[in-house]
Design brief:
Jelly Rolls; 475 residues; eight-stranded antiparallel sheet; mainly beta
Length: 475
C-alpha cells in the first residue's frame, strides 16, 4: 500500500494512545515537580515514547543538591547519555545506537536495581523492546542510592530539561511512566505486534507505581502535567499551553517537516518540526515532509506566519533532488507549487496563471492531493482556486480548479511529498505546516476519518497524513 511509513510506526489495532505533548525549546517548555521520599532509592524504571528532532537536547533529570543529581540527554552526535552522581559516585551510560530518525516514534525504558549482584544487571536500557548494552559504561555500585530517585530539596524533578544547562527537549513525548521501587522489563510497557513485528504500547494503568511514581497521558489539555497513576504526583506546567497537546502519538504518527532533507541554506524547524523558517534572512530555501503519498486523497494546510511575495507551497516527487541543487520548488517536472507573488502554478521551471496572490500574514493555504485521479487543488482561507487566475468560493468541486499531475509511479521518487520554499534573498516566508497536528489554533474541522484538526473544511474523501489513515483511507 500506499505511503512511505517512518520506522517503527505503530500498526492499526490494539491499544491506542490518544495524545502526546509537544515540547518547544524556543519557549523553554518543561514539566517540574518536587520528589517525595522514595519507595526505594535503589530501584526505579523510567519509560516513555518520544519523537525527537535534531540536535542536542535534555530529556529528564532530578537534582537533590550540587553533589546529587541525575539527567539523561541526547548529544549532538545523536546518541543518548545517562549520568547520575550520588554522594560522589557516578553512573554513566552511553547508547550504542544513534537516534537519527526524526520521523519515527521511539520507546525508551531505563531500568535500575543496584541490589543486583552482577553489575550489568543493575542498569539496563531498552529501545523499542530491545536492550541497548551501551558503551563507556560506569555501573552503579552495589546497593547504591541513585540520585534520580532521591527526594528533592532545593532542586526539582524535571521532564524536557534538567537543572542547569538550559537545554530543552525538542519534539514529542507520550505515555511517560515512572515506577519507584521496581526494576521492570520493557514488556510492562509494550509488546511486539504478532503480524508486523513492530514494537507497540500496551495499557500501563494496572502497574504499581510506588511513592514517587507517576503516569502522564496528556489527555487533559488544561492540565498537561496531570498524573493519572492514582498518586496525584502532578507536575507544574512551565510555558506549555493547550495547543501543545497533540494527537501525533506512538500509535498514530503524523507527517512533519523533515529536518534531514532541506536546502543547503539554514532552515530552522520548531514546534515539533511543524514550523519552518529561514534563519538568518538572506537566502532561498526548500523543505519537505517526512511521509510521502503514492495513492489515495490527502489534505494539508499551510499557515503563512511571515508572508512575503516569494513563497511557494505545493507537492514534489523529487524533494531530495531539489534540496541538493538548491532549486526553488517548481523547478522540476514532477513538482507543482503555487507562487505567493501572483498565484501562478509553477512546474518544470515554468508558470501559468492558476490562482491569485497570497501575501498576507496568517493566510492559510490548503492543498488537496488526489492521487487516485492525479489531480491537485489549492485553497486560500477556505476559498478554492479556480484554475484560471483567481480564488473562487468555499465549495470544493472535483471538476473545477484541478491541476493534472503526473501519476506518482512515474515520478522520480514514486511518491509525492508536501513542500514549501522561498525564492527571495532579502526576506523570508515562514510556513507552519498542518498535516492534521497543528501547533496553532484551528477550527474543529476533521478529515473523512474524523482525524486531524484543520482551520477549514476538508474535502469529502480526503485525509490527513498520518499512519492511522494509511489502510482506512484507502480501504
Amino acid at each position: 500500500m500506499p505511503i512511505i511509513i517512518p520506522a517503527n510506526s505503530a500498526v492499526a489495532g490494539g491499544y491506542d494512545v490518544d495524545n502526546s505533548c509537544r515540547f518547544n525549546p524556543s519557549s523553554s517548555d518543561y514539566l517540574s515537580r518536587t520528589n517525595g521520599t522514595p519507595t526505594n532509592a535503589k530501584k526505579f524504571t523510567w519509560s516513555a515514547w518520544f519523537k525527537k528532532t535534531t540536535g542536542a537536547m535534555n530529556v529528564a533529570g532530578n537534582k537533590y543538591d550540587t553533589s546529587n543529581y541525575a539527567y539523561f540527554y541526547f548529544r549532538g552526535t545523536d546518541d543518548l547519555r545517562f549520568f547520575d552522581r550520588s554522594g560522589g559516585a557516578d553512573t554513566v551510560w552511553v547508547s550504542d545506537m544513534l537516534f537519527r530518525d526524526t520521523s519515527a516514534w521511539y520507546h525508551l525504558v531505563i531500568s535500575v536495581d543496584t541490589t543486583q549482584g552482577t553489575n550489568t544487571n543493575r542498569f539496563k536500557v531498552y529501545v523499542n523492546g530491545v536492550q541497548d548494552t551501551g558503551n563507556g559504561i560506569t555501573y552503579p555500585g552495589l546497593n547504591a542510592d541513585m540520585a534520580f530517585n532521591k527526594a528533592t530539596a532545593s532542586g526539582l524533578s524535571r521532564i524536557a530539561t534538567n537543572q542547569d544547562t538550559g537545554s530543552f527537549f525538542n519534539g514529542y513525548m507520550s505515555e511517560i511512566v515512572y515506577i519507584d521501587g521496581q526494576q521492570l522489563d520493557p514488556t510492562s510497557f509494550g509488546e511486539f505486534d504478532e503480524d508486523s513485528g513492530i514494537w507497540k504500547p500496551i495499557d500501563v494503568s494496572g502497574l504499581t507505581f510506588g511513592n514517587n511514581g507517576f503516569y502522564l497521558d496528556f489527555e487533559n489539555s488544561g492540565a498537561l502535567g496531570a498524573d493519572v497513576s492514582g498518586n496525584s504526583n502532578n507536575f507544574t506546567v512551565n510555558n506549555l499551553t493547550a495547543i501543545d497537546q497533540t494527537t501525533d502519538t506512538c500509535t498514530n504518527n503524523f507527517a512533519t517537516w523533515n529536518p534531514l532533507i532541506y536546502s543547503p541554506e539554514t532552515l530552522v524547524f520548531t514546534e515539533g518540526n511543524t514550523n519552518a523558517s529561514n534563519q538568518p534572512v538572506g537566502a532561498q530555501y526548500h523543505g519537505s515532509t517526512t511521509i510521502g503519498m503514492t495513492s489515495g486523497k490527502w489534505y494539508a494546510e499551510f499557515k503563512c506566519t511571515a508572508a512575503n511575495q516569494y513563497g511557494y507551497v505545493g507537492i514534489s516527487a523529487s524533494p531530495s533532488e531539489t534540496a541538493r541543487s538548491d532549486r526553488v520548488p517548481g523547478y522540476y517536472p514532477d513538482e507543482y507549487t503555487l507562487y505567493s507573488y501572483n498565484g501562478y502554478l509553477k512546474t518544470n521551471n515554468g508558470g501559468t496563471s492558476f490562482a491569485a496572490s497570497f501575501t498576507s500574514n496568517n493566510d492559510i493555504i490548503g492543498v488537496a492531493v488526489d492521487l487516485d485521479n492525479n489531480k491537485l487543488y489549492f485553497s486560500k482561507n477556505g476559498d478554492w482556486a479556480t484554475g484560471s487566475g483567481a480564488w473562487g468560493n468555499s465549495t470544493f468541486n472535483a471538476g473545477t480548479g484541478a491541476k493534472a499531475i503526473t501519476a506518482s509511479n512515474l515520478t522520480t521518487e514514486q511518491a509525492y511529498f508536501f513542500i514549501i520554499g522561498d525564492a527571495d534573498e532579502g526576506s523570508s516566508a515562514k510556513f507552519n505546516g498542518n498535516f492534521g497536528n497543528p501547533s496553532y489554533s484551528t477550527g474543529t474541522n476533521q478529515d473523512s476519518n474524523d482525524r486531524g484538526s484543520f482551520a477549514y473544511a476538508v474535502p469529502s474523501g480526503f485525509f490527513s497524513v498520518c499512519t492511522s489513515n494509511i489502510s482506512e483511507a484507502l480501504s
